[in-house]
Amino acid sequence: FPGLADVSISEDIPVEGEITVPVGSRSPDEDYSTLDEPVKDTIMRDLKAVGKKFIHVMYPKKSSTLLRDWDLWGPLVLCVSLALMLQGGSADSKDDGGPQFAEVFVIIWFGAVVITLNSKLLGGTISFFQSLCVLGYCILPLTMAMLVCRLVLLAGSGTVSFIIRLIIVVAMFGWSTLASTAFLADSQPPNRKALVVYPIFLFYFVISWMILTFTPQ
Amino acid sequence: LSPVFCLFAEFDDAANLLAANPDATTISIDEPVEIPKNQHGRLQEPGREEDDELLGTDDSDKTELLAGQKKSAPFWTFEYYQTFFDVDTYQVLDRIKGSVFPVPGKNFVRLYIRSNPDLYGPFWICATLVFTIAVSGNLSNFFIHLGRPTYHYVPEFRKVSIAATTIYAYAWLVPLALWGFLMWRNSKVMNIVSYSFLEIVCVYGYSLFIYIPTAILWIIPQKVVRWVLMIFSLCLSGSVLVMTFWPAVRDDNRRIALATVGTVVLLHALLAVGCLAYFFDAPELDFPAPIIPAHNGTTVITKSH
C-alpha cells in the first residue's frame, strides 16, 4: 500500500495532554454513596420501588422497568403473609390438615425456581432473578384473594360463602396468570410459549387450591 | 452411469446372500447406511420390515452420530441440559397424542422421539399427575362424605408429598432399573434395538399422561366406573410400553423377554391400583348419595355406626 508508507509516528512530535477523563465537579463515588443519607430515605426508596411494582402487577402492561430493577422484597413479604394467613386452618396439628408454614414457603419458592429453570432451559432470555421477581410479585392478587376469603369465612362457612370464595379465587387466579404471562411471554422463543406458560398456570393453580380449601377450625 | 450400476450390483449380491441364509446376522460398520436398512428389513418379520423402513434404521451409526453431535457440551455446563429441552410445543403435543392413541405396530420411541428425548414432558406430566391425583382424591372424598353430619372437610395436604415421592420415584427409578437390565442383556445377546436411558425415561413419562384424565374422572364415586377407567387407561399406556420394549427383548430368551414385558406392565398396574386405593376412598355402598331424602339418610347413618 504505497499511500500508507509514510504513516508513522516520528519521534520528533511531542506527545502531550491530560490523561484524566473530565467528569465534572463531583466524583462518581458521591453519586452512588448512600451512606450519608438518613435511614428513612433508604427505606422509603425501597418501599417505593416495591409499591411501584405492586401497582404494575395490578395493572399489567408491558413494562421493562419491572424486569430491569428486580427485587425480592415484595415476593418475600407476599409469601410470608400468604403462609401466615394459611395457618390456623383446620386440624393444624393432625396429619390431614392444610399446608404448614414451611410447606407454603417451599412450594412458592421451589416452584418459582423450577419454573424459572424451565423457561431458561427452553431458551428464554430472561435472567434468573428477574423471573423469580415477576413470579413472586404476581402472587399479589392471590394474597388479596386469601385476605378476602378469610373475611368471608368470618361471616360464615356455608355454601354461599363457598361460592363467593370460589368466584374470587378463580378471578384472582386468572389475574395472576395473565399478569405473569404479560411480563414473561416476550422473553420466550415464539414456538415454545405454551410450554413456558403451562407450568406458570400449574403453579398458580396449586396456590389457588391451597387458598380455596382453607377451612377454619 | 456405471458407478450406479456397480452399486446396484452390490445390493443384489447382498440380497442374494441373505435370501440364501435369512437367519444370518449381519453387522455392517463400514458400509453406507442404506444397506444395513435393507438387511435388517429382511431379518425381521414382514410386518416389522415396513415399520423399520418407514422409520429409518434402528440404532445404527446414524443415530449414534446424531446423538454424538447433539450432546457435545460438557455435563457441567448449562448448554448440556438445554439439549434435553430442545422441543417445540407441537412436538410435545404430538408425543402426548402418540402416547394416548397408540398405533399398533408403531414404536413410540422411533416414531416420536427420534433421538431427541426431552425431559420437559416427563417432568411436567409427572408434576401435573401428582397434583391432579391429590386434588381429585380430595374432591372425591369430599363428595363421598358430604352427607355425613359429622364430616369435617380436611385438605389432606400430606398426601401431596406422598404422591410426589411415589410418582417421581416410579418415573425415574423404574426406567433406571429397566435400562440397567437391558444393558446387561445387551452384553449377553446381540439385540437389534436398544434404548438410551433418556429415551426410556421419556417413554415412561409420556405414558403416564393418560392417568391425568383418568384421575379426574375417578372423582365419580362409582366403583364399577373407576375400575373400568383404570383398566382402559392401563391398556392404553401399557400397550405403549409393551410396543416400545418388546422389540428390545424379543431376540432374547423367550422366557426372559416375557418376564421383562410382564414386569413392566405389572409395575404400571401396581402404580394405578395403589393410587386409586390410597388417594380415593372407597364409595361406601350402604351410604346414601345426598339426593336421597332425609329420613332414609338418618336411618342409614345409625346403621353405619
From TrEMBL, chain A:
<dbReference type="GO" id="GO:0000139">
    <property type="term" value="C:Golgi membrane"/>
</dbReference>
<dbReference type="InterPro" id="IPR045231">
    <property type="entry name" value="Yip1/4-like"/>
</dbReference>
<keyword id="KW-1133">Transmembrane helix</keyword>
<feature type="transmembrane region" description="Helical">
    <location>
        <begin position="134"/>
        <end position="156"/>
    </location>
</feature>
<keyword id="KW-0472">Membrane</keyword>
<feature type="transmembrane region" description="Helical">
    <location>
        <begin position="70"/>
        <end position="89"/>
    </location>
</feature>
<dbReference type="GO" id="GO:0005802">
    <property type="term" value="C:trans-Golgi network"/>
</dbReference>
<feature type="domain" description="Yip1">
    <location>
        <begin position="59"/>
        <end position="210"/>
    </location>
</feature>
<dbReference type="Pfam" id="PF04893">
    <property type="entry name" value="Yip1"/>
</dbReference>
<comment type="similarity">
    <text>Belongs to the YIP1 family.</text>
</comment>
<feature type="transmembrane region" description="Helical">
    <location>
        <begin position="162"/>
        <end position="184"/>
    </location>
</feature>
<dbReference type="GO" id="GO:0006888">
    <property type="term" value="P:endoplasmic reticulum to Golgi vesicle-mediated transport"/>
</dbReference>
<dbReference type="InterPro" id="IPR006977">
    <property type="entry name" value="Yip1_dom"/>
</dbReference>
<protein>
    <recommendedName>
        <fullName>Protein YIPF</fullName>
    </recommendedName>
</protein>
<feature type="transmembrane region" description="Helical">
    <location>
        <begin position="196"/>
        <end position="215"/>
    </location>
</feature>
<keyword id="KW-0812">Transmembrane</keyword>
<feature type="transmembrane region" description="Helical">
    <location>
        <begin position="101"/>
        <end position="122"/>
    </location>
</feature>
Automatic annotation (TrEMBL), chain B:
<dbReference type="GO" id="GO:0031267">
    <property type="term" value="F:small GTPase binding"/>
</dbReference>
<feature type="transmembrane region" description="Helical">
    <location>
        <begin position="196"/>
        <end position="221"/>
    </location>
</feature>
<dbReference type="GO" id="GO:0000139">
    <property type="term" value="C:Golgi membrane"/>
</dbReference>
<dbReference type="InterPro" id="IPR039765">
    <property type="entry name" value="Yip5/YIPF1/YIPF2"/>
</dbReference>
<feature type="region of interest" description="Disordered">
    <location>
        <begin position="30"/>
        <end position="60"/>
    </location>
</feature>
<dbReference type="Pfam" id="PF04893">
    <property type="entry name" value="Yip1"/>
</dbReference>
<comment type="similarity">
    <text>Belongs to the YIP1 family.</text>
</comment>
<keyword id="KW-1133">Transmembrane helix</keyword>
<dbReference type="InterPro" id="IPR006977">
    <property type="entry name" value="Yip1_dom"/>
</dbReference>
<feature type="domain" description="Yip1">
    <location>
        <begin position="100"/>
        <end position="272"/>
    </location>
</feature>
<keyword id="KW-0472">Membrane</keyword>
<feature type="compositionally biased region" description="Acidic residues">
    <location>
        <begin position="48"/>
        <end position="58"/>
    </location>
</feature>
<feature type="transmembrane region" description="Helical">
    <location>
        <begin position="256"/>
        <end position="280"/>
    </location>
</feature>
<feature type="transmembrane region" description="Helical">
    <location>
        <begin position="119"/>
        <end position="140"/>
    </location>
</feature>
<protein>
    <recommendedName>
        <fullName>Protein YIPF</fullName>
    </recommendedName>
</protein>
<keyword id="KW-0812">Transmembrane</keyword>
<feature type="transmembrane region" description="Helical">
    <location>
        <begin position="227"/>
        <end position="249"/>
    </location>
</feature>
<dbReference type="GO" id="GO:0016192">
    <property type="term" value="P:vesicle-mediated transport"/>
</dbReference>
<feature type="transmembrane region" description="Helical">
    <location>
        <begin position="160"/>
        <end position="184"/>
    </location>
</feature>
